[in-house]
Amino acid sequence: MALAGRQSTFSGSQVAARRSNARVARVARAPAVKAVASSKVKKVVLAYSGGLDTSVILKWLQDTYGCEVVTFTADLGQGEELEPARAKAEQMGVKQIFIDDLREEFVRDYVFPMFRANALYEGTYLLGTSIARPLIAKRQIEIAKEVGADAVCHGATGKGNDQVRFEVGYYSLKPDIKVIAPWREWDLNSRTKLIAYAEEAGIPVPSTKRGEPPFSMDANLLHISYEGNALEDPWAEPDESMFTRSVSPEDAPDKATYIEIGFEKGDPVTLDGAALSPAAMLTALNKVAGDNGIGRIDIVESRFVGMKSRGVYETPGGTILLTARRAMESITLDRGEAHLKDDLMPKYAELVYNGFWFSPEREALQAMVDKTQEFVTGTVRLKLYKGNATVVGRKSPFSLYDPVIASFEDDKGLYNQADAGGFIKLQALRLRTLGVNRHKMLPCIRYNLVSEPYESAWLGCVVFQRQQQEQQQQQQQQQQQQQQQQQQQQQQEHT
């Protein structure tokens, strides 16, 4: 092996041994890291943000697995400059670097389909983090196939939901892929150890990263989330300085803002008459909603891994979009399909939250949801004011709302009010039947028979009723006998 024009005096096996020893020495100088079998990994695609955590993971992969690392950075509208991630990866010896603008695909193929289902996890969470993970996983697998990588790696912790979302996505798209999850393998279990490892490896550590951060953040075009540390006390109110995408409702304009959103087959296509692409639409809605203090929630959610977690979210554009969509559906969906959608929505939301975007059941639900959206076309007008988004108008060429039928005035004979009587009687039939039979149980209630187990209570009631009937029969027989005796006495007196 030639080094700077000089002939090496080492054999091939000696050179390999020296390289191996050098890698061991580098790891030994850093804080202790759990040993990991690495012989089978040749190339790994890392989901890389360029931040401290994923930069440490990059170096750890190189040191621990001795493999080539390919970085992938997704632009999902998180609002950060991404080119520094390229520069940092290059400094760390990465040869293949992918930085992809996925904003349009993210909104068009993930956010909008999810919104067609009106999905809310546990009735409040708009799934901003959950819906981003399938796309990242999908692109990682595509890159792995493109570059011939045999493994993928993510930076999700071993306590959160994201590890499930990423890995279920990986295995769904490439069942034989090897997954590396550093937070489940290494011993860098504190911020201090992480920073020490970074400094030893020559990774720049921003001053803002020293010490425990007040909270962790995750952002994309749909939302931004805040979790951990200062927010772990569910009684503590978040500091106003934390929020970045919305003004406080108290500081929002004193004059209401009116907007009109145009829909086509369930998706928003125009804002105040101007046609916008999916990503541009969500960006514009974020701006107008955030300016009016809309989209903040503070919740405690049930994580898929078993624990409860407090999270604070800003989802300004998504909040008014959901409000407008439901208004559009209110005049274009039949009652049956609307109610069926509402019944299935929690299941759909749970599948997204838990990471089962690529599952057959989610796809089946999506097909049903999309079928209901064929006529969800029209315009919704909203009033935005100090944290509230109020629907003040809706119209559609496919509207099922007929003002003539609904009017309290003359309906031109379209609705015969007398027909309601028969309809009500049929609807009330089961309740009338229930009332009659329950009335028979009243004597049992008086004698406290219903305090026993159900079967005993019912049997006791039947026995009691039979006893009552037997007593009535005996009384009737006695009365008949008395009448017969009286008649016989009268006949004897006459004779």
UniProtKB/TrEMBL annotation:
Q: Where is the Arginosuccinate synthase C-terminal domain?
A: 215-432
State which Enzyme Commission number(s) the record gives: 6.3.4.5
A Gene Ontology molecular function term for this protein is: argininosuccinate synthase activity
Pathway(s) of this molecule: Amino-acid biosynthesis; L-arginine biosynthesis; L-arginine from L-ornithine and carbamoyl phosphate: step 2/3
BP term (GO), one: L-arginine biosynthetic process
Which segments carry the region annotation Disordered? 473-495
Coiled-coil residue spans: none
Q: Which Pfam families match?
A: Arginosuc_syn_C (PF20979), Arginosuc_synth (PF00764)
Provide the Arginosuccinate synthase-like N-terminal domain boundaries.
43-204
What are the entry keywords? Amino-acid biosynthesis, Arginine biosynthesis, ATP-binding, Ligase, Nucleotide-binding
Which HAMAP family does the UniProt record give? Arg_succ_synth_type1
Tell me how this protein assembles.
Homotetramer.
Q: Identify this protein by name.
A: argininosuccinate synthase
State the organism named in the record: Tetradesmus obliquus (Green alga)
